[in-house]
Amino acid sequence: MKQTGILFFPAFDWSLGTSHPEREERLLYTQEQLFEEGVLDLPQIRQFTPRIASLNDAAQAQALFPTPSSYAEPLEPHLIAAGSAILLGEARVKGEITNGFVLVRPPGHHSGATVWGNRGFCTLNNEAILINQLRARYGIKKIAVVDTDVHHGDGTQDIFYHDPDVLFISLHQDGRTLYPGSGFIDEQGGPNAWGQTLNIPLPPGTGDEGYHYTLETWVLPRLQAFGPELIINSAGQDNHFTDPLASMNLTASGYGRITELLRPDLAVLEGGYSIEGALPFVNLAILLALAGEDYHHVREPQKIGRSSLPFASLKSYLETLKKQSLMVKPDFLIHNVKFFPQGDWVYIPHSVYYDTEGFQETRHDFVRKCNHCAGTVYIESQRTSSQKSVLVRIPFAACPQCEQAGYDLWDYVQHQHQEIKSGVFQNQLHNQHDVWQRKKD
């Protein structure tokens, strides 16, 4: 029998404020709704208990600056959300479930390769930590992430921007109208993974028909061409017509159809802040679709009050957007720093605003061009003039040249900055290495 896993973690001890949209009630109303509908009694539904991830698990995907112990808020809720995603992902890979829904908070898709704090309600990236654990422990290679949150999944994009084995697709409200102000069609991947990032910025007012058309005509063909071993849906629900933070017009039933079209192996909750008017019904529709049950009868109590974008206008917009996307060509700046190992290094400046805490991170990213792997990445990250950090990443399945380049770079950093206060997160997993780290004075 088809088995659909479900896991709840409301994170009672993590809140940005009792009246903040990101609070534990986001999941409590959903639990009540599922109990009332009797969905959890379906024979194909299997519940799981949350599990905490380790800092080493997180370090395979992200570098926490200056140290994990320096964060004002506790990391445990974030580690439990990430660990719960890993748990359900492992159950899927082992064949214990057919698919699953990770209903956890805090969310994670705005958290990138370097982390100085919370931004967009996110500190750790649940999907990225999950993906790297599945790759390291189970040898999964090709994974697709389809982010349907109303906000661009800029953190997930950042982590996998140079990785040709991860296809990242984000459908979101146009970044010119909404946080985080990114996710445009020219963002298509780094020099070793061009075309492996697909951003589809949608205009405000896009509803069910527009989303389904975009999936059927653009997203699904791209997934089929890539041929992933796993599909993960970053299932943000702030596209709903009642959401207070955005301007889209999806319905609960529309979300069910998105899930039916995507057929994800795993859906991981991201945003969604209409706590009573949307989340219980959207989550119900998604779970029913995953379980192969009829979701069309799910109706939220309110009626759509926002004006919807006419479908003909959206169709014309998407056709133009597709043409513009095909016209974008890679244009990378080669910048070989004197201490870099042999090879061509592409320089990509990067700036990240932490809206929750109100500061700017400035980054200087360098990636080694390579025809054989994702390429070694060297990042200098700076929060203030006195807080500078270095991250060296050796990719999964690194070629010998990129692997050696990563270790040579880290040796250089160690020799040049003897006052590093905390060591290196270094993980060797089936001869695939990721080197991360920390603080240089």
TrEMBL record:
Gene3D superfamilies: Histone deacetylase domain. CDD domains: HDAC_classII (cd09992). PANTHER family: HISTONE DEACETYLASE HDAC1, HISTONE DEACETYLASE HDAC1-RELATED. InterPro entries: HDACs, His_deacetylse_dom, His_deacetylse_dom_sf, Ureohydrolase_dom_sf. This is Deacetylase, histone deacetylase/acetoin utilization protein. It comes from Desulfosporosinus acidiphilus (strain DSM 22704 / JCM 16185 / SJ4). One of its GO terms (molecular function) is histone deacetylase activity. One of its GO terms (biological process) is epigenetic regulation of gene expression. Belongs to the histone deacetylase family. Residues 78-277 form the Histone deacetylase domain.
